[in-house]
Structure formats: structure tokens, C-alpha cells
Amino acid sequence: MFEKFFYVFIKYIVMYTLIDGKATAAAIRREIREEVDYMRHSHEKVPHLAAILVGHDGASETYVSGKEKACREVGFESTVIRYENTITEEELLEKVDQINRDASIDGLIVQLPLPEHIDEQKVIESIDPKKDVDGFHPVNVGRMVIGLPAYISATPAGILELIRRYQIKTEGKHCVVIGRSNIVGKPMSILLARKDYPGNCTVTVCHSRTRNLKEIVRQADIIVAALGKAKFLTGDMVQEGVVVIDVGITRLPSDKTKSGWKLWGDVDFETVAPKSSFITPVPGGVGPMTIVSLLRNTLLAAKQAIYK
Description:
Elements: H1 2-14, E1 17-18, H2 21-41, E2 48-54, H3 58-74, E3 77-83, H4 89-100, E4 107-110, H5 120-126, H6 138-145, H7 154-165, E5 174-178, H8 185-193, E6 202-206, H9 213-217, E7 222-225, E8 242-246, E9 250-253, E10 261-264, H10 269-272, E11 276-279, H11 287-302
Parallel strand pairs: 1-11, 2-3, 2-4, 5-6, 5-7, 7-8, 8-11
Antiparallel strand pairs: 9-10
Helix pairs in contact: 2-11, 7-11
């Protein structure tokens, strides 16, 4: 009886590999820092990232602050341009055009969301694709779709790098992407189906209107959960040995933390992890890879490695 219990206990402890995005991102930052140091010592131009922040949204402030800190850590130059919510669309577009023409700036991001009176898509399309290190411009999205070199948006790029560094097999696997957003779901479905590594998957995209979703997800070898619904994916929805990439981040009230809230992913970690071969935690999984992927895009922009 004890031996049986011990076997089950060990099985559920050692079965899965935790994909550590925090440690991976730290390693990549060190690699970028080494390359930037070499560029500086060789009297080459040091990468320069500019960010435009409109208003005082708390999440946006935190994200931009994280970008500034990351730039300092890797030796980038960084500029943050702040505006009040009252800025007009025309004024914002004029600033974007000014930065487009500024040769000293390699990458530009406009932090979203923007105030309702400003057309976000119009602003995104106004950014020079060669400086679009967020990878949102239709030119970069289109180049990605047909397999040309492009700036891939930060979260999908981060996921690909985690798969690559953990040497997770993707060829011939059935990947189910839960979510169809332009930022994560759609690009991930395209990238994992491409003729490359990571890639060569058979990809199914599920969303809020998908029928028999549980049955479809249960067939997956790889799951990318990007729905934005806390603990949506549960253990009864996955097969043994599945690879699970949790992109969701939902902040919910909690009486067990000093802050009064806790971050949850789209995956119910406690029930899904024991059945997984690889799984990302929340926090500490995909999240840390987002900013470091933005840094890598900026480094590529400075070296003019995509658009030659």
C-alpha cells in the first residue's frame, strides 16, 4: 500500500518540466548585454528604443517602467514620451512621424490602449515598419504570414523562444490555440504551422464560439491558452504528456496576499500540471519573455537585420 502511494506521489512530482520564463529571460538579457557591450566597444551605434505613453493607465505605466529598466540593464538607450489623455490624434501622429524620421531611434512602440478618441489601428499603421519592434504593423504581420523576415510581436516571439530553448518537439504535433486575438492567438497559429522550427504543427484554433471545445482540446499535444479567462483549462480537458503554454493573466481579489489580489493564468495549474510534460507557470512563464523579446527586436532594428 505504501509503495503504491509512493509511486503515485513521485509520478505527480516529477512528471512535468516547469518552463521557467524568468530564468530564460534573464539569460537572454545577459546575451543581449554582451552584444551591446561589443557594439559600444566597436564604436557602433547602441540600440535606442522609444516609447509613447498616453494617459496614466496603471498597467501601461508599469509595463513602460519595466521596459525602461530592461533597457538600462542591457545597455540600450531609451526614451519615454508622455502625454495626457487630452492629446489629439493629429498631435500623436505628428510625433510618430517625427520619430520615424529620427535616425537616432531604432525602435518605436506606442503603448496601448489609447484614449477612445484616437484610432489605435491608424496609429499602428503610421509607425515605420522598420521601427515597428512591437510587430503590429500590417507590413510586419504580412511578412510573417508569408515567411519573410519580420518583427514578430513580443508575446508570440517569447513563446517560440521558450519552445526552442527547452527543445520541445513540434513537428507533426497537434497544437490547439485557445484564443484568436491579433496579438497572440492568430500569430501563434500561423507561426506554429510554418515550415520551420518551432513549427510544422497541425494547428486548430478554438475560441468562444467553438463547439465541442473540450473534445478538441483533449486531442492536443501542445496547447497555447490565450483566452483571458482565469483557470479556464482544467485537468479533465487535457491528455497525458501535453505541453501547456499559459498566456493568460487575470488579476483577481485574494485574501491570502498582502496586495489583496493574485494573478491567475488561463490554466488551472494544480489539475493540469500533473498531466503535462512541459508547462509554464503564471506568473514567471510567458510574461517575462515579452519585454525581452521586444529588446531582441530593437537589437535587430539597430543592426538593420530584418530590413536590409
